[in-house]
Structure formats: structure tokens, C-alpha cells
């Protein structure tokens, strides 16, 4: 018997005969949709990301300005040409997202069209993410309801950062050091 099987057998014996308990799933949902763009922008800014809230007509020019001089990975399905394919030499990646959460300032990628692979979004030092206003939801329950649990999910809350034992912040250890977000209204 493997260690895994032994542990599962012990758990099975421990709970044998216990009555089933219903777990309530009364999550807060259906909250007000007013002010979501502003709240999301504020929370993303709190994470030390660069944030722009722009009309949709101004987004292409802002993208050009933000990526000027950078070798960018442009994933399949992102509406832009001139991408860089070599992950090892790219300066950054530009993506869309599956959903964004106002309450937490979190961007969720499900790696669908325009979102690239997990490696493409974690290896480069710079990530530019374009979020449409209609992709922003109030909280996590609303975001989860929009996501397919069978897809690979990457939840991004600001640039990559960690702290050492002395609480010194170190950026760029587990992903992009710089996160720039364009919110298209």
C-alpha cells in the first residue's frame, strides 16, 4: 500500500459513520455594479501597478506608447500584429484577461484567446494587460461564476513580489516585475 492510499484509508476509517453535513454556499453575490471601474483601478494601483483608464478609442495609441522599444510577446487571439515569439529574449507580454475583480484588484487569465500561455505571462519582466470595463465584476464569487473550472487559471494581483525573512520586499521573483493595466471604457 502506498503512503497516499494509507492516508486515505485512515481518513475513511475516521469519518466512517459520520453524518453528512450540508455546507452553506450563501456567498455574497449580485452586488452593485456602479463604480467597478474606479474601484478596480484604485485597487490595482494599490498593488504598485501602472493603471490607465481610457476610452476604447484611445487604447491602441496607449498600447503603442507603452510597448515602444520593447520586444513583446503577442499571444494568438490578441488584436495586434508584430509580436515577438522568443520567450527567452522577450521584454514583455501583452494580454487580455478572462475577468477582473474590483474588490481585490485581481486579474484572472484563463489562457484563452489573447491571453497567452502561463509561461508567456510569468517569464517576461513586463506584463501589459488590457481589461475591458465589461470584464470587471464586484467580487470573487462573481468572477468564479464566469470562469470555466476546467481551464488553467492564473490570478494576478499586482506585479510579482515577495518578502524575505526581514520583510524586505523583492519584486519580480515569481513573475513580471512590472504590471501595467489599461482599462478600456
TrEMBL record:
Highest taxon, organism lineage: Bacteria
Protein name from the UniProt record: Lactate utilization protein C
SUPFAM superfamilies: NagB/RpiA/CoA transferase-like (SSF100950)
Domain LUD positions: 86-183
Organism for this UniProt entry: Nonomuraea phyllanthi
Residues forming coiled coils: none
Database matches in InterPro entries: FTHF_cligase-like_sf, LUD_dom, NagB/RpiA_transferase-like
Amino acid at each position: 500500500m502506498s503512503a497516499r492510499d494509507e492516508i486515505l484509508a485512515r481518513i475513511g476509517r475516521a469519518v466512517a459513520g459520520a453524518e453528512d453535513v450540508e455546507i452553506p454556499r450563501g456567498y455574497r453575490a449580485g452586488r452593485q455594479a456602479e463604480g467597478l471601474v474606479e474601484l478596480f483601478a484604485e485597487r490595482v494601483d494599490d498593488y504598485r501597478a501602472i493603471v490607465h483608464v481610457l476610452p476604447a478609442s484611445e487604447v491602441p495609441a496607449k498600447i503603442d506608447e507603452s510597448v515602444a522599444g520593447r520586444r513583446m510577446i503577442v499571444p494568438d487571439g490578441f488584436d495586434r500584429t508584430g509580436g515577438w515569439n522568443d520567450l527567452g529574449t522577450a521584454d514583455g507580454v501583452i494580454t487580455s484577461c478572462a475577468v477582473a475583480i474590483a474588490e481585490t484588484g485581481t486579474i484572472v487569465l484563463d489562457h484563452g484567446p489573447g491571453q497567452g500561455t502561463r509561461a508567456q505571462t510569468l517569464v517576461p519582466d513586463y506584463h501589459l494587460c488590457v481589461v475591458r470595463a465589461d470584464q470587471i465584476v464586484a467580487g470573487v464569487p462573481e468572477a468564479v461564476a464566469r470562469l470555466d473550472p476546467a481551464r488553467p487559471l492564473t490570478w494576478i494581483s499586482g506585479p510579482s513580489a515577495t518578502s524575505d525573512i526581514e520583510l524586505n520586499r523583492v519584486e519580480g521573483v515569481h513573475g513580471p516585475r512590472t504590471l501595467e493595466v489599461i482599462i478600456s471604457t
